[in-house]
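User: Design a sequence. Structure:
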């Protein structure tokens, strides 16, 4: 189900709309759809006795906005956290590893390279042990 929110974000992104503004506006359809999907997934996981975590896996431009204190996902992350969803924002660990400046962290089209995957894996292992 979560793929639906990614499709919505991609449509907005490719349609010339500002994804950051869409997620910053709690009344926007994108924000409401993403929130609803995540809350439904979290409820299902909890019902099955599992532990749900919402992972933020930013792209390089997203890391730059996070580094400046204006991450476009902050509002959604705060809203989810206020509803009891555990949010794991991996922008900090990626930034600390050097992913903003180092090209070695990125493949074509902004996909994560092995260095980025390693930084994420290390951060997730730390989060899992908490």
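Assistant: Done.
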């Amino acid at each position: 189900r979560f793929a639906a929110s990614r499709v919505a974000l991609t449509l907005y992104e490719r349609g010339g709309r500002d994804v950051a503004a869409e997620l910053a506006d709690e009344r926007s359809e994108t924000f409401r759809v993403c929130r609803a999907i995540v809350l439904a997934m979290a409820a299902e996981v909890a019902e099955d006795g599992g532990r749900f975590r919402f992972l933020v896996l930013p792209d390089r431009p997203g890391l730059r906005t996070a580094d400046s204190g204006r991450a476009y996902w902050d509002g959604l992350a705060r809203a989810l956290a206020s509803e009891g969803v555990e949010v794991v924002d991996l922008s900090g660990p990626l930034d600390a590893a050097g992913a903003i400046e180092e090209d070695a962290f990125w493949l074509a089209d902004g996909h994560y390279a092995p260095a980025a995957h390693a930084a994420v894996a290390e951060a997730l292992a730390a989060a899992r042990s908490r």
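The first strand starts at residue 53 and ends at 56. The chain has a mean pLDDT of 86.
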